[in-house]
Design brief:
Blueprint (H helix, E strand, L loop, with lengths): L9 E4 L6 H7 L14 E2 L3 E3 L2 H5 L4 H7 L5 E6 L18 E6 L7 H13 L5 E3 L8 H10 L18
Parallel strand pairs: 1-3, 1-4, 4-5, 5-6
Antiparallel strand pairs: 2-3
């Protein structure tokens, strides 16, 4: 049986080198240092997947099965390398899926549009452009994740009282 905490996890899927683990870290969804992900990694907040599971169709079943543990799936594209996404791939995923073009600070508008087109071909209807390095677009993505219940709402704090006078 799936607990409610498991169903509020975020899952990242995409090719090797797309920056999935780095993205999880900057979103505050993983404590792990960015490195080569060798297997599907489950944490209390996220499911991180190896790029090879996306690149080799024989492993799609592992992604599809693991998606049952997620509430939201980020399909991550790297616009610096052209990678074909399987047509309508997200139809097999058992969670809401959105597209994320990472490394948006490194390429031209033309390459960003091509990466977005591949994500849409894979079946996502919403795409966010982000840079895990510069922070570009992360607040918009976090807002969407909060609205989906995958990320905690930011804690509102009152400013410290000034000197009374």
């Amino acid at each position: 049986m799936t607990t409610s905490q498991e169903k509020h996890k975020l899952m990242v899927i995409g090719p090797s080198g797309a920056g999935k683990t780095t993205l999880l870290k900057v979103l505050g969804m993983s404590e792990a240092s960015p490195c080569k992900t060798e297997a599907v990694c489950y944490s209390s907040k996220a499911v991180d997947t190896p790029g090879e599971f996306f690149e080799i169709p024989r492993f799609y079943h592992a992604l599809i099965t693991s998606s049952t543990k997620a509430h939201l799936v980020l399909l991550v594209a790297d616009p610096t390398r052209h990678v074909r996404f399987p047509s309508m791939f997200t139809r097999a995923i058992r969670a809401r899926s959105i597209g994320v073009v990472n490394k948006s600070d490194l390429v031209s508008e033309d390459l960003l549009l091509k990466a977005e087109a591949e994500l849409r071909r894979a079946g996502v209807s919403q795409v966010f452009r982000v840079s895990a390095v510069t922070g570009e677009g992360l607040e918009e993505l976090k807002g969407y994740m909060r609205a989906c219940g995958v990320m905690d709402q930011p804690v509102k704090t009152e400013p410290a009282p000034g000197p009374q006078g």
